[in-house]
């Protein structure tokens, strides 16, 4: 079957990674040619996992599977304020960048499409932007009784009464202490304070620990998708 899509340049990513990359836009259907594809260093595509015919068609054009993604949502009701939760400030950025760079070193921004270290740089910049209120609107910290950081979660308010978790990570020394669940509950409380009704989050299908965390926190699995690159 022919692939009907346009290619939308990814301007921010192109500037950050020094690549000419684009994303297939299936909402603007038009025949996709090899000449259009070869004009880019990387072309990304995201499809629902049940779109098997479209995935096969992209594979025939040279696209390769990069990773699977799960999208989950949590209905906000009856949240409780969590202890040890603080709003991240600029003085926390250096530590947050270091933690994010390590925690998200493996992602879809990987070789052979991207350079070693690109993934860590990308997510380090993401969490800094969240602290500064750019893209994600806020970053919350989980702190222990001594005031040491145990983890963080970034949040973005959407336009439809919903919010989305951007990044969530627990520091290695704090794992096994329920910090992840405390951060999800803090994110839900953040939503309730803003009269938001639903909290969404996406994670890699291979990240079983994250999937278990969100499901144990009351989230429902809404959809799964695949990222493919050419």
TrEMBL record:
Q: Which reaction does it catalyse?
A: dTDP-4-amino-4,6-dideoxy-alpha-D-galactose + acetyl-CoA = dTDP-4-acetamido-4,6-dideoxy-alpha-D-galactose + CoA + H(+)
In this protein, the active site sits at 214
The protein's superkingdom reads Bacteria
One MF term in the entry's GO annotations: N-acetyltransferase activity
Residue ranges of the N-acetyltransferase domain? 83-230
Q: What are the alphabetically sorted keywords of the record? A: Acyltransferase, Transferase
Give the EC number: 2.3.1.210
Instruction: Name the residues that bind acetyl-CoA.
Output: 207
Task: Give, as in the UniProt entry, the pathway in which the protein acts.
Answer: Bacterial outer membrane biogenesis; enterobacterial common antigen biosynthesis
Task: State the top-level EC class.
Answer: transferase
Any one of the GO BP annotations = enterobacterial common antigen biosynthetic process
Q: Which InterPro entries match?
A: AcTrfase_WecD, Acyl_CoA_acyltransferase, Bact_Acetyltransf, GNAT_dom
Q: Which family does it belong to?
A: Belongs to the WecD family.
Entry-linked NCBIfam families: PRK10975.1, wecD_rffC
The entry describes its oligomerization and partners as: Homodimer.
Q: What does this protein do?
A: Catalyzes the acetylation of dTDP-fucosamine (dTDP-4-amino-4,6-dideoxy-D-galactose) to dTDP-Fuc4NAc, which is utilized in the biosynthesis of the enterobacterial common antigen (ECA).
Q: What is this protein called?
A: dTDP-fucosamine acetyltransferase
Q: Which organism is it from?
A: Winslowiella iniecta
């Amino acid at each position: 079957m022919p692939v009907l899509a346009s290619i939308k340049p990814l301007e921010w990513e192109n500037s950050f990674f020094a690549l000419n990359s684009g994303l297939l836009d299936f909402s603007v259907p038009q025949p996709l040619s090899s000449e259009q594809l070869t004009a880019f260093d990387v072309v990304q595509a995201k499809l629902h996992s049940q779109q098997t015919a479209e995935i096969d068609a992209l594979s025939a054009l040279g696209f390769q599977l990069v990773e699977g993604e799960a999208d989950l949502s949590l209905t906000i009701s009856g949240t409780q304020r969590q202890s040890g939760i603080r709003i991240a400030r600029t003085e926390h950025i250096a530590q947050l960048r270091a933690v994010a760079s390590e925690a998200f070193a493996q992602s879809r921004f990987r070789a052979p499409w991207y350079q070693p270290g690109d993934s860590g740089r990308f997510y380090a910049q993401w969490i800094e932007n969240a602290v500064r209120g750019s893209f994600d609107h806020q970053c919350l910290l989980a702190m222990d009784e001594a005031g040491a950081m145990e983890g963080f979660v970034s949040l973005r308010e959407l336009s439809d009464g919903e919010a989305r978790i951007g990044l969530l990570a627990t520091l290695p020394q704090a794992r096994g202490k329920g910090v992840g669940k405390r951060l999800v509950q803090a994110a839900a409380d953040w939503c309730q304070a803003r009269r938001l009704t639903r909290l969404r989050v996406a994670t890699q299908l291979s990240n079983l620990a994250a999937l278990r965390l969100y499901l144990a926190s009351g989230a429902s699995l809404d959809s799964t998708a695949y990222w493919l690159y050419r």
